[in-house]
Design goal:
- With about 280 residues, the protein is α/β, with parallel strands linked by helices.
- The protein has a single domain, classed as Ribonuclease Z/Hydroxyacylglutathione hydrolase-like (Metallo-beta-lactamase, Chain A), CATH 3.60.15.10.
- The chain is about 30% helix and about 20% strand.
- It contains seven helices and 15 strands.
- The strands form three sheets. The chain has a seven-stranded mixed sheet with strand order 1-2-3-4-5-6-9, covered by helices on one side. It has a six-stranded mixed sheet with strand order 10-11-12-13-14-15.
- α4 runs antiparallel to α5.
- The longest helix has 23 residues.
- The two termini are about 30 Å apart.
- About 40% of the residues are buried.
Length: about 280
């Protein structure tokens, strides 16, 4: 666990997403959760050592299964964007792992077991302020990378948790994205307003504005390729031609290459279907 500012921690050693913990006198505010049951128990044990108040809430930064599978195991009130409720209504009440290849991290583990979802009990549309200290935590809707994507910002400490808005060392998740909205959100992140901030990415820990700028350029390239495919009425399967060039942008370890290829293959095809052939899409997130 790394303390990036007094009483504000991140944890990047569990499978899946980067976790956050804000230890205020009123209680703990947690950013996302591990998806493996063993990791959930370990994380909860580590949090006990922080002390602080007795109350806890868990903030889900979007609907990605990597960050929502373990929410119930954290045994606290869940907060998220109102669109997460729609997502959970379209999921089975109990999650049972299947042999899927969407490129999500949880698919790399075979000990997940059946899980009951934990839909958010507190939701908001645009902005929610949490006053558990003299300095508020601002939850802000920042659409683009996933359904119900939000940022958790601590303006007085110059810290912002941006979830999958910035993914650096692995391919982004595209299946449920909206690239133009994503680029708009990132343009805010690279503006002078966030110049002196610590930016916590949802997969890589601390990231930089320059890395966000690089992602903007890649997303613009993907969008241009999608538009070109749509203009010539290509089939969704033709998006696979983009995968090799995108993989070259990452120095992927050999044992991760197939996983990242699956993420891009699934993400590009689903993105194309949802945005250019929506009649046939299966609505989930």
């Amino acid at each position: 666990m790394q303390e990036i500012s007094p009483h504000i921690y991140i944890e990047n050693n569990y499978a899946g997403v980067t976790l956050g913990a804000i230890n205020w006198p009123h209680g703990l505010i947690l950013i996302d959760s591990p998806f493996r049951p063993d990791d959930t128990r370990s994380w909860r044990s580590a949090l006990l050592n922080l002390g602080g108040g007795v109350d806890r809430i868990l903030v889900n930064l979007d609907a990605n299964m990597d960050r929502t599978l373990g929410s119930r195991g954290m045994e606290c009130t869940v907060v998220g964007h109102e669109k997460l409720l729609h997502v959970f209504r379209n999921r089975p009440v109990t999650f049972k792992p299947l042999l899927t290849e969407t490129g999500a991290e949880w698919e790399q583990y075979n000990n997940i077991g059946s899980v009951r979802w934990a839909p958010p009990e507190i939701t908001f549309s645009d902005r929610l302020e949490i006053h558990w200290n003299n300095a508020p935590l601002n939850l802000e809707h920042r659409p683009g990378p996933a359904t119900g994507a939000i940022w958790a910002a601590l303006p007085q400490q110059n810290i912002v948790f941006v979830g999958d808005a910035v993914v650096v060392n692995e391919p982004p998740f595209l299946a449920f994205a909206d690239i133009p909205s994503w680029v708009e959100s990132l343009e805010v992140l690279v503006s002078p307003a966030y110049q002196n901030h610590l930016i916590v990415g949802g997969r890589d820990g601390l990231v930089t504005q320059n890395q966000a700028r690089d992602l903007i350029e890649m997303l613009k390239w993907i969008h241009a390729q999608m538009e070109a495919l749509a203009d010539r009425r290509a089939l969704p399967a033709e998006t696979q031609t983009l995968v090799p060039e995108l993989l070259q942008r990452y120095r992927s370890p050999a044992n991760r290459l197939d996983h990242y290829r699956a993420r891009l293959s699934y993400g590009l095809e689903q993105y194309f279907i949802r945005h250019y052939h929506p009649v046939a899409v299966e609505e989930e997130e």
